[in-house]
Amino acid sequence: MQPVLDAHFEDRPKYEHAARLGLWVFIGSEVLFFAALFTLYASFRVLHPAAFEEASRHTDFAKGAANTVVLVTSSLAAALGLHALQEGARRRAAMLFALTSALALVFLWLKAAEYSSHLAEGLRPGAAYASSELPGEGPRIFYTLYYLMTGLHALHVLGGLGAFAWVLWMLRRGAWNGSWHLGVELAVLYWHFVDLIWLYLWPLFYLVR
Amino acid sequence: MAAQTRARTYYATWGALLVLTGCTMAASSLTRGRAEVALTLLSSTAKASLVALFFMHLAQSRFMLRAVLVVAAAFVAILVALTAADVALRPPVPVLQPKG
Predict the structure, then answer these.
(1) Nearby residues of B18 by Cβ (< 8 Å), 6 or more positions away
(2) Which of A58, A68, A133, A135 has the fewest C-beta atoms lying within 10 Å of its C-beta?
(3) The dihedral of CA A136, A141, A142, A147: what is its sign?
């Protein structure tokens, strides 16, 4: 434990418990954040059922499915990385966290490719919506929600990339080992949450058609 | 975290997630409309539960933490379902016209 923390916590388990609880509270606030958007989606879907079905036929089914496999696999790499570190295998842990980061980059690359092809087709958010193939209010709302929700999720993926860059940097400096790796555990927990949100975004925007 | 999860558990979770992803796609191409919404969301919840239980170690967490999360998920479901039901079932609002 860092000396500065000694004054605040009686022992390390109490410190670890507080830190873990703190991350779960953060995840709870993130759930609220996304729940509001899922509510908005459900309400607009009820108002424009046919338009939402038609619009979700125009999202990129293959890229959506590929991204699901990519994120689920990155979660596995993160979980195995933490497992390796718990067993003291720091090199193996670093390689697995590098794999997690690489998969996060693949996810963002596929997402960017999707955005650019949609933007070129006029499937843009809000007032900028200009698709002649999918005219009307319903598809415009669908694509506005699509950019808002997947964009917000992509920002979380970027945040995860930052967290794993920090994890890798600290691992290199030798800050963590088999018995002390709380920061890594929290980064991995956050990453699984980012994966979990995508598991709901995927059917709503790519599948239900 | 109390006990340490074995690597085999992580691989099994990942395998189950991939199988469920395939099932979701099959369900989505075989069904339409409400059945499709229900089936794909059910499958998402199954996957999310696997991620929470094994990747996020909820299966071995304290009872209180699990209780908090289950209750939170239930309230999110209530928020989404009741708001959507309100929008779906509310009669059209009459437009008020100024008199005269």
Answers:
(1) A69, A72
(2) A133
(3) positive
Region B3-21: mean pLDDT is: 91
Interface test with A, best of B1, B45, B47, B68 (most A CBs within 10 A): B47
Does B99 fall in a domain? no
Does some domain include residue B28? yes
State the Cα–Cα distance between residues A158 and A80, nearest whole angstrom.
21
Reported as a single tens digit per residue, the pLDDT across A40-86 is 999 999 999 999 999 998 899 999 999 999 999 999 999 999 999 99
pLDDT per residue as tens digits for the range B35-44: 888 899 999 9
Please indicate whether, in this complex, the C-beta atoms of A72 and B21 are within 8 angstroms of each other: yes
Interface of B with A (CB under 8 A): 1, 4-5, 7, 10-11, 13-14, 17-18, 21, 24-25, 28, 33, 36-37, 40-41, 43-44, 47-48, 51-52, 55-56, 65, 68-69, 72, 76, 79-81, 83-84, 87-88
What is the interface pTM, i.e. ipTM, of the complex? 0.90
Q: Which of B7, B28, B55 sits opposite A192 (nearest CB)?
A: B55
Name the residue among A193, A202, A177 with its Cα closest to residue A75: A193
Contact with chain B for residue A189, Cβ under 8 A: yes
Mutate to test the interface with B, among A12, A63, A82, A208 (most CBs of B within 10 A): A208
Asked if B68's CB is within 8 angstroms of A39's CB, the reply is: no
Euclidean distance between CA atoms B43 and B24, whole angstroms: 6
Counting the structural domains of chain B, the total is 2
My answer on whether B64 and B44 are in the same domain is no
The pTM for the full model equals 0.91
User: Quick count: other Cβ atoms within 10 Å of Cβ A181?
Assistant: 22
B100 within domain boundaries: no
The confidence score (pLDDT) of residue A2 equals 61
Q: Are residues B53 and B67 in the same domain?
A: no
Residues of chain B contacting A35 with CB distance shorter than 8 Å: 76, 79-80
Domains for chain A: give ranges and CATH numbers. Answer: 12-206 (1.20.120.80)
